[in-house]
Amino acid sequence: MYFLDFKTGEKIINGPFWHEVFTEVYEDLEDEVSTTTSEPLPFFEDDPSTNNVTAQLGSRVHLHCRVHDLGDKTISWVRRRGEEIHLLSFGRHTYSADSRYSLAFEQPNNWRLLIQYVSERDEGFYECQISTHPPLVRRVYLVVVVPKVEIVDERGKPLQDKFYKEGSIIELRCVVSEVPEPSRQVNWKHGNRLLNYDTKRGGVSVKTETLPNGALSRLYIANANRKDSGNYTCSLADFAATAVSVHVLRGENPLAMQRGGVSNVTHSLRALLISYIS
């Protein structure tokens, strides 16, 4: 028997899945003598080493299930959450209320489950089942990797505030890590203004290089002035972002302010206010 999950609209099955789907009654099997040649049993082709799959947040991922000698049996994909089993597909039909899930069959025998726009809640166990008695099951564990974005100083330590002298060059470094597929662009913003293709101010450039597990992006702003002060954000698409507060000072030593840390932030703001008034 099954009931509906009113939050997701998915069918939730209590107990062994195939006992609910198939209603044939097999009685006195021990007394029956078969005179026909038995058909070969289906089997999974995929190597056990592929039972763990990693996907980046927001990407699309295929969970593979290659089956030989399927015969008249049926393939289904289910999502296991504790004691609950959510039916995702049966044969070539998708039963999930979540449109991100679909059956993407690939010839000749790959019953792939496609998950689009992967989110953190998609992490967990998935089962590809063959309708034998008892069912044959291939379990796949999906790991969802959330990118990490940090604006760092010359020593690689995260920054919250950065101080520059008026007329100097602003240089900010952004490190993106935990990205198995570094295909998305790293964006820089000053407030709400995108800087990657900025031509209005002039003297702004962005240089990004791909790393084995992410990217390193540098923002350069020449001839810094007081209008360049404010919050700067480094982001990877819409999935991860971080910000730093930049202070452009007049007549003070930025290195001294930087070494002073947070205790000097209030003093720097006062200096900025005085410089604006003057």
UniProtKB/TrEMBL annotation:
InterPro entries: Ig-like_dom, Ig-like_dom_sf, Ig-like_fold, Ig_sub, Ig_sub2, Ig_V-set, Zig-8
Domain Ig-like: 42-131, 147-245
GO terms, biological process: synapse organization
Superkingdom to which the source organism belongs: Eukaryota
PROSITE patterns: IG_LIKE
Annotated GO CC locations: neuron projection membrane
SUPFAM superfamilies per UniProt: Immunoglobulin
Name by which UniProt lists this protein: Limbic system-associated membrane protein
Natural source organism: Papilio machaon (Old World swallowtail butterfly)
Classification lineage: Eukaryota, Metazoa, Ecdysozoa, Arthropoda, Hexapoda
